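Notebook, bench 3.
Goal today: get a predicted structure for Probable membrane transporter protein from Microbacterium paraoxydans so we can plan the truncation constructs. The sequence was checked against the plasmid map this morning, with no discrepancies at the termini. Length recorded as 265 residues. Pasting the sequence as submitted so the record is complete.
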Amino acid sequence: MTEARALRRGPRAYAAFIGIGLLAGLLSGLFGVGGGTVIVPLLVLLLQFDQRLAAGTSLAAIVPTASVGVISYATTGSVAWIPALILAAGAVVGAQIGTRLLPRISQTALRWGFVGFLVVVIVSLFLVIPSRDAVFELTWLTGIALVAVGVGTGILAGLIGVGGGVIVVPVLMLAFGTSDLVAKGTSLLMMIPTAVSGTVGNLRNRNVDLLAAVLIGVAACTTTALGAWLATIVDPTLGNLLFAAYLVVIAVQMALKAVRGRRRG
């Protein structure tokens, strides 16, 4: 057994899986994201997971986590079901495009571009406060726009491994005028078919640590509902500030990867 594999087994590893799951579930429910931005770096840093194995394990753990999150948001009517399915369909197609474009596009340039996108979103979150009473109106125009957003999200996911919630939640709030709760619930629903599709492929390629995925996913399920409940009682302005802080962490992570990629280049 290799040293890296040995680190992934034993009491310390199991405790780490559970701790990572608890944190990821809380953030998933609170912000409507999958939690991969927490799971992947912690698996790599704490347990020396290979980046690809960490991403595959994270995607598998997201399936039960997002499912519990959707149920939690659905109980308050905060899920736009049809828009979520439209986004998911676009994301599945976009992910295939992204993986094919991957060898042809500079990862460093992509990462800096995404950092720029996050900066714009962060600034916008201080300027636009979503209304909890806002209703998502599905028309032909918004339907086409949702397809475009889904495809774009999928392409970015395929190119740089960014989860959909980081893109979909702010876009639904800022561009579509959706309430923050509906944006989060819809984002979580959109992730499920995308994560299932990706996990099937990762299992075939042996890019999933099933035991780790199960432990993280089960642990995350215990805190996802708590996160979703906190989202309902947090004032929208404070919710924007917390989400902005979360995006800052992601932007810093992506900028560091871009810097390292440029040095290697």
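The chain has a mean pLDDT of 86. The two ends are 33 Å apart (CA to CA).
Flagging this for group meeting.
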